[in-house]
Amino acid sequence: MRFNYGRSYLGRRGAIPLYLPELPLRPGVIEPLGGLTIPGCIRDAGPDSWGQRVVMQHLLGTGARDGDRAVFGPLTHLLRSGSDRIGALDFQEHAHVYVSRDETSAPLEDLIDAADRVGEGRPLPPALDLALLHASSVGGARPKVLLNADGGDVIAKFSSSTDTYAVVKGEFAAMELARRTGLDVASVDLVGVMGRDVLLLKRFDRVPGTQQRRALVSALTILELDELMARYASYADLAQIVRERFTHARASLRELFARITFNILTGNSDDHARNHAAFWDGEWLTLTPAYDICPQARGGGETSQAMMIGADGFRMSQLAGCVKRASTYMLTEREAGELIDHQVEVIKREWDEVCDRGRMTEVERSFFWRRQFLNPYAFEGYSSAPVQSRAGQGLTPG
Ligand SMILES: Nc1ncnc2c1ncn2[C@@H]1O[C@H](COP(=O)(O)OP(=O)(O)OP(=O)(O)O)[C@@H](O)[C@H]1O
Ligand SMILES: [Mg+2]
Known about the structure:
Layout: E1 3-4, H1 7-10, E2 29-30, H2 40-43, H3 49-60, H4 74-80, H5 108-120, H6 126-133, E3 144-149, E4 152-158, H7 167-180, E5 188-193, E6 196-202, E7 216-218, H8 219-222, H9 235-245, H10 249-265, E8 277-280, E9 285-287, H11 319-324, H12 333-357, H13 362-368, H14 376-379
Antiparallel strand pairs: 1-2, 3-4, 4-6, 5-6, 7-8, 8-9
The structure holds adenosine-5'-triphosphate and magnesium ion.
């Protein structure tokens, strides 16, 4: 897919490049960067597997099969998904006529029912079909809808019939604990609707009280990768870019390191490059609040993170390995250790209270505790920072 700025946009005062280096503000056709088939900043604004499924069902009805997704190229997904998409962009058939695809709404109960129907391949009443389409542009694999609540714009994520454990409650607990450890994280709330857990996330890509949208790009785009190359995504490479191109570079590196160790402490091994993003102002990048910190199902001991933590390719979900690579994030090993110890302390201290707020049953708590949250594997070879350790006792769980 090639891109061409319109002449009127190029002539507009205050126009910014959609993202650099991939789409510099200049006339003429611009090819995607090497190895990509579509500019990353445009791909970021389109649906992922969940939204593609909704678009497909909208276009094909219940006869749609998962394999049909490939029949529609990215242009169909961009042009048919809802306009209220993440970030600042929208996509239209015509250069001179703007037709927003986001007028319809429905009560949350109906939207959840509609999402269930899509998940199960059952037909949708037309009004609900359109209402569900509203959120189809939001990325990710899990079912979700958009709400315009009193307090602002909200993404609602809910449990799906195929969940084998309390995924949504787990995500709530991790997000809430992240905030309590001092991470900058999207605000969350957990509500029950028709016996279902629903996670409400305040959108950070809208300026509250205005119609204004904030431009952002995913780390996948920042790293100049696409989904097929996602396994090469590296926090260490991202850290290098943070040093060069981010506002508040030093603080952002510390935040990034803290997000990595928090992911490890809460069993979120699904920390792929579309689960990190940065605001884009035309010149500089600024880390967005953290989102999608979701403890994952896991088997035995060994686990790895979705992105490499060290420039040497290290990606094991282990704190000791993170501490060894602290300098990549402009931290000393002691600072890294102190940061981790603080996270562990807060998780231990706040766990019960957060579980209460997340309405977790005893069974759910013991499912997560020491499996996703504070899994012993994470602590192997790790001893707490020298200043905080008492007579050589490491803060290992036990
Ligand atoms: N609070 C927020 N404000 C703005 N955009 C957000 C927010 N939370 C998530 N997003 C955007 O929505 C997308 C989907 O959200 P999320 O990653 O939580 O969904 P998911 O279905 O769990 O994803 P995955 O497929 O990674 O499991 C994100 O990639 C991000 O672009
Ligand atoms: Mg995600």
